[in-house]
Amino acid sequence: MPQRANHPVPGWILALAIAGLLGWSPQSSAVGFQRFDLSSAGLGVGNALAADAEHLSSMAYNPSALAFREGLDFEGTLGRRWGGLDAPGASSSPGSFFVNDFYAAYRGRARSWGLGLAVNRPFRMDSDFDQEFSTAGAPTRTELDLVNINPLAAYKLRPGLAISAGPNYYRTLDFEYSSLDNSGGEIRRTGGGDALGGTAGIMFWREGWSVAATYTTGADLEVDGKNLSNNDLRLPARARIGWKWHPNLWWSVHAGAIYTRWSQYDGLGGVDPGKDWKDTYGARLGAIARLSDLVKLRFGYSFDQGPKDSRTFDPRSDTGDRHSIHLGGTWDTDPLRLSFAYAFSVTGSKDVNGARISEFDGEHETSGHRLLMTIGYSPW
Fold first, then answer.
1. What is the set of domains in the chain, with CATH numbers?
2. Alpha carbons 120 and 7: distance in angstroms, whole number
3. Nearest CA to 39 among 116, 110, 126?
4. Which residues contact 223 (CB under 8 A, 6 or more apart)?
5. Prediction pTM value
6. Which member of 12, 32, 218, 321 has the greatest number of CB atoms within 10 A?
């Protein structure tokens, strides 16, 4: 790895990043309600970083990458999401800027271990319904915004093999799960809560290629507040696999898949009658072209299955299979680097017929744009 000059670490980078994560809310850009855009580097390459150790934010896709990096590194990302929602009774609004993630990592020279901190927002629901419904239980407003604080450690068992693990602490930034009661009035449910899970990973690395796998456990989010009392909302377990081919210094190919156990999710305990969602798969494919020592370009494509059908349809979160194209780039100097990424997604038109709440029957289609901008700092 190239040696970097020593530079003092500015404390305001950490302070601003964490304050922003706690203060600005992203608009939903999820499948089910899982967000895959965990960094600019990831978004630009189709979120296919599960077997990558080159980027700081690769720890969000596989924390074993920490054992193959060197030095002290920080980065934070600002994002914006906007798009269209075409669904009976539902409305969408233009997105605003929000803080998407913050990452920090350290590994000493020739050390077998690496340490990292990942702070991101992996789950999001955000829906408003402006139609006057009549069926009891019909949603009127949904908002779920979670921050995930994930300290991580990786250990190199041998020169090309590393393992990693760390706890996931989830905390609600916003929570609302309102609906109609039997008389047609609104029951407003607002509050907050937290949950604890964990992540483990393994990576096999060689100079020209690498393979890796990661597993993140599910977690039980217990929510208290107005019209809420220890109501449970299950976050699903996720598993990732990845492969990277790096034939020369100028380009690399990245591929991966993600499996999400949506069958573990059963809505908000004591409120929903059950979801019966199906487990889903997603595919990722991307490439990175290195135009010079300073400039990289990224390209990618991703596909994600939706967990719902007409029988299990739930309008509180996005519906249908999603196809996305991705583009990104980095300008890397010493000690600063700037990155951007853009993705356009389309969820194909879905004809819902036979939903539990009949007013939601009809055509449902979404499209969305996502933009992420990152500043990174590596003092050495």
1. 11-377 (2.40.160.60)
2. 26
3. 116
4. 172, 175, 177, 191, 192, 193, 230, 231, 232, 233, 268
5. 0.86
6. 32
